[in-house]
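Write out this protein's structure.
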Amino acid sequence: MIWFAVRFYLLFIYGVGLTCRKRFIGFAALDTCKKDNKTWIFSAWHQNVAIAAWLLRGQNGTVLVSASKDGEIIAKSVEAMDIGTVRGSTAKQGGRALVEMMHAIRAGRVGLVTPDGPRGPCHHLQPGVIMLAQKTKVPIIPYHVEATRQWLWTKSWDQHHIPKPFSTIVVCAGEPYFVPKSLSKDGLEKVRKEFEQRMMNNVAAAKRYVEELK
């Protein structure tokens, strides 16, 4: 079942991705990082994970994937696109996953984390991504994808959406956010809320660009 699910996902997501136009917004800051041989962590809401992982292919990326049975399908699909994976979440194997992601990022790989996954609530940022950025001393980049036409699963906890074939995809990256080297418990919560709001601002920006294209 896993083998068939992975093949179906790959056929589906390539069929969607390759037929869509792409608009990349806010990526100039990443060009500067690349010139300086620096890496970063993309932070995308769980509702974006299907298309966000596909867009990361060919970029020396590593994705944090849930250690659940459902995560096994996602992990094998991501690995089939030549993207690295680390298994774990806030609910399961979180400490080990954080250490493995730290090693990957310090080795120069681009991280992708869904900070409200794998169980939600939707758009509530868990502190793991803040701790990861603090330990690795690399910026977190808000990362969101919207499309002019897309499927929306309103009954799923994350309101998952996937672009429809032949639509225009807007990939929006926010400003790089550097986490302070030391944080108190209150300071961590303040940073968590601030970056959560930056991610929501990035979602709003992506939606505005999509509306202009319609």
